[in-house]
Design brief:
Layout: E1 2-5, E2 8-15, E3 27-34, H1 37-49, E4 54-57, E5 63-65, E6 70-77, E7 82-87, E8 90-96, H2 101-110, E9 113-114, H3 126-132, E10 135-136, E11 139-140, H4 141-144, E12 145-152, E13 155-160, E14 186-196, H5 199-216, H6 235-241, E15 248-249, E16 252-254, E17 262-264, H7 270-288, E18 297-299
Parallel strand pairs: 3-6, 4-6, 5-18
Antiparallel strand pairs: 1-2, 2-3, 7-8, 8-14, 9-14, 10-11, 12-13, 12-14, 15-16, 16-17
The protein binds flavin-adenine dinucleotide (FAD).
Flavin-adenine dinucleotide is lined by residues 21, 55-63, 77, 97, 122-125, 127-129, 131-132, 134-136, 186-187, 217, 222-224, 297.
Length: 303
C-alpha cells in the first residue's frame, strides 16, 4: 500500500535489494525518494512524528542490507542540484548530496574543472562520499571538501571539513553509527574545491583511472572493498595470501580477481555474506594475527 505525504509517495514494504549495488536485502517498512532538501526535511519530520528510525540511502554502494530489511523509513536521496562559484583562482562547487559522485566528476572535467578527477568510476553519491570519506587514486573527500551543510535536529548547520574529523574511510558522522540516533544527521550539500585545467588533460587522466579500475574490479554485483585496509598492507593481499579467493557461502563468493570483493552470484542473502565475512576474518586472524574491520556497513535486522 502506498501513502502520500505532501507530494511524496511513501511505499510500504519496499524491497531494498534493487537499491543496493550488492542486490541484497529485505524490505523497508517505509521507503521514499527525496529530490530536494525540503523533501528530506519533510520526511524526517514525518518519521519523527511516527517514532520511526530513519536510514539515509545514497547509492547503496557501501552497505549490506539485512535479510529482515529495515524497520523504519528509508529515504533515497536524489537531490542533485549544483552550481559553480568562481572568484579568480578560488573555484568552488556547491552540490546537493544526492548527486552521483562519478557522473559529477566526469561532467566537471569535461568543462575544464579539475579537483574530483580521482572520483572517476567511484560509485555512489556525494553524500555517501562525504559521510564515509571515500577515496581512491591518491585523493579523498577529506582533502577536497571545504564545508558541508548538515541537517541536525531540524536545523541546518554549516560544518567545516575539520568538523568532520576525517580518518581513513571514516568521519565524525560515520562514528555515530550504532549509537542510539533514531533520526540521523543528514548531509544536505557540500562545497568542494576545484581548479581550472585543460579538459583534454583531465580526460586523459580520467581514462587512465577508468582503465585501472576496470582491470581491478570484478564484474557482477558487489559493494567494492568489504574490509578496510589494515596499517601497512591491504586486506586484498592478506585475503589472497590466506587462500580465500573462490571461497563460497551460499551464493556469495570471494572474487578470484580481487580477494577483498564478495560477489553476489545471484540470489545471495545477507546471511550468506555475513557467514562468508566471518570465514574471511577468522582465516586472516589465524594466518597473520591481523583483525580485519568491515568497511561496509550492515543496515537493518538480520532474521
Ligand atoms: C564497485 C565498487 C567500487 C568501489 N570503489 C571504492 C573506492 O575506490 N573508494 C572508496 O572509498 N569506496 C569505494 N566503493 C564504496 C562506495 O562507492 C563509497 O563508499 C561511496 O562513497 C558510498 O556512497 P553511497 O552514496 O553509495 O552511500 P550508501 O552506501 O548509500 O551509504 C553509506 C553510508 O553513508 C550514509 N549516507 C549517504 N548519504 C548520506 C547523506 N546525504 N547524509 C548522511 N549520511 C549519508 C548512509 O546512511 C550510510 O550510512 C566502491 C563500491 C563499489 C560497489
Amino acid at each position: 500500500m502506498n501513502r502520500e505525504l505532501h507530494n511524496l509517495t511513501l511505499l510500504e514494504n519496499e524491497p531494498l535489494a534493487r537499491y543496493t549495488s550488492w542486490r541484497i536485502g529485505g524490505p523497508a517498512r517505509y521507503f521514499a525518494t527525496a529530490t530536494s532538501a525540503d523533501d528530506l526535511r519533510d520526511l524526517l519530520q514525518w518519521a519523527a512524528g511516527e517514532s520511526l528510525p530513519v536510514f539515509i540511502l545514497g547509492g547503496g554502494t557501501n552497505i549490506l542490507v539485512a535479510d529482515g530489511g529495515y524497520p523504519g523509513l528509508v529515504i533515497r536521496n536524489r537531490a542533485t542540484q549544483h552550481r559553480i562559484e568562481e572568484h579568480g583562482a578560488d573555484i568552488r562547487l556547491w552540490i546537493e548530496s544526492g548527486a552521483p559522485t562519478a557522473g559529477t566528476a566526469r561532467r566537471l572535467s569535461a568543462q575544464g574543472y579539475g579537483g574530483l578527477v580521482w572520483a572517476e568510476g567511484l560509485p555512489g553519491t556525494i553524500g555517501g562520499a562525504v559521510f564515509g570519506n571515500a577515496g581512491c587514486y591518491g585523493d579523498d573527500m577529506a582533502h577536497d571538501l571545504i564545508r558541508a551543510w548538515v541537517l541536525r535536529d531540524g536545523n541546518v548547520e554549516e560544518w567545516s571539513a575539520a568538523q568532520f574529523e576525517y580518518g581513513y574511510r571514516t568521519s565524525a558522522l560515520k562514528r555515530l553509527i550504532g549509537q542510539d540516533q533514531a533520526i540521523p544527521d543528514v548531509i544536505l550539500a557540500a562545497e568542494i574545491r576545484l581548479h581550472r585545467d585543460d579538459p583534454a588533460r583531465l580526460a586523459a587522466e580520467m581514462a587512465a583511472i577508468a582503465e585501472s579500475r576496470k582491470s581491478k574490479t570484478p564484474s557482477g554485483s558487489s559493494c567494492g572493498s568489504v574490509f578496510k585496509n589494515p596499517e601497512g598492507t591491504t586486506s586484498g593481499k592478506l585475503l589472497d595470501q590466506a587462500g580465500l579467493k573462490g571461497t563460497q557461502v551460499g551464493n556469495a563468493i570471494v572474487s578470484e580477481k580481487h580477494a577483498n570483493y564478495i560477489v553476489n552470484l545471484g540470489g545471495a542473502t545477507a546471511s550468506d555474506v555475513l557467514r562468508l565475512t566471518d570465514v574471511m576474518r577468522e582465516r586472516v586472524l589465524a594466518t597473520f594475527g591481523v583483525e580485519l574491520e568491515l568497511e561496509v556497513q550492515v543496515v537493518g535486522e538480520q532474521v
